[in-house]
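Exercise: predict the fold of this chain.
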Amino acid sequence: MKYYISFLVLLSLLTSCTQIKTKSITKVSQNEFNDVILIDVRSPDEFAAGHIKNARNINWFDADFAKQMSTIDKKETIYLYCKKGGRSAKAAALLDSLGYQKVVNLEGGYDAFIQK
């Protein structure tokens, strides 16, 4: 429960950033949160060592990263994270260039998430 609340606070902070092209999220119920598309772009080993509940692992360094992401509707809101935010920022930029409409990068990544 502590991690869910921390993640929701981080999501609120993320959506208020001017550089993110998403609609602001003010409230998210736990049921709705279970249905979000949460992508961990770290390696499978990093993912296995710990990840946010309900996250799907799609490794940024996989040659077919974009192909794996293509299974997700471009109109869906996609939340991305990595260890500290670098890889997920690159992944967010790529997805934006591919026409994904709502991509949110978890600022500070998994490290920031587990610190809360």
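Check your answer against the key: The chain is about 40% helix and 15% strand.
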